[in-house]
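Please fill in the sequence for the structure shown.

STRUCTURE ENCODING:
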């Protein structure tokens, strides 16, 4: 199945809603009704109407984005850090180290890693390197 590409700000909106305990079904229902008023208080800087417009363009694609996942069009280092925090509650210094070109020593479970791999844009390269200390692979992501 081909994943749909979305912008980083769209991903932020979706993951912000999820991080606040809003289910995929609730997202789909509210967008279908075009009633995003309860979400305004979640983040006043987001225009959640963008999600409504995205769904209006192609409802099936929007449903797939919410239920099946998505691929981000382009990610910056700060964008990657924000996404790691929103989606996986991973924080610099605790769960990974920032580098000049990306991040290294990312500590993430296999399921989350699989989701992350699916989401990353073409300008990201993910490396899994053997780690003798923990026995788990050391994850590094570099951005072009």
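FILLED IN BY: designer on duty
SEQUENCE:
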């Amino acid at each position: 199945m081909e994943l749909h590409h979305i912008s980083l700000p769209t991903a932020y909106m979706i993951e912000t809603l999820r991080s606040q305990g809003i289910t995929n079904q609730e997202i789909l229902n509210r967008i279908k009704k075009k009633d995003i008023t309860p979400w305004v208080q979640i983040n006043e800087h987001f225009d959640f109407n963008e999600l409504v417009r995205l769904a209006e363009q192609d409802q099936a694609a929007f449903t797939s984005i919410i239920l099946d996942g998505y691929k981000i069009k382009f990610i910056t280092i700060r964008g990657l850090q924000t996404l790691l925090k929103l989606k996986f509650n991973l924080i610099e210094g605790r769960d990974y180290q920032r580098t000049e070109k990306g991040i290294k020593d990312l500590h993430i479970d296999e399921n989350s890693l699989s989701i992350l791999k699916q989401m990353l844009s073409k300008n990201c390269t993910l490396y899994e390197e053997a780690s003798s200390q923990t026995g788990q692979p050391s994850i590094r992501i570099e951005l072009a």
